[in-house]
User: Fold this.
Amino acid sequence: DPIAAQRLAAMSCRTLVILSGADRLIRGAEGPATAIRGATVVTLDGAGHLGIEECADEFNRMVLGFLNED
Assistant:
């Protein structure tokens, strides 16, 4: 969606994008994620579509680490 890509590119706030490495339902999320200038993009290796549940501890560490950055 070109309009969505433009909106992502216009974002100017700190952004954390967490991808699930083994998600079979949503593929190609890396592209839109990298459209956000300066975004921090990380991957939950081995996590499927429900990465937040499958790897909750790792997900929480990633989020807290991002929030605690200066």
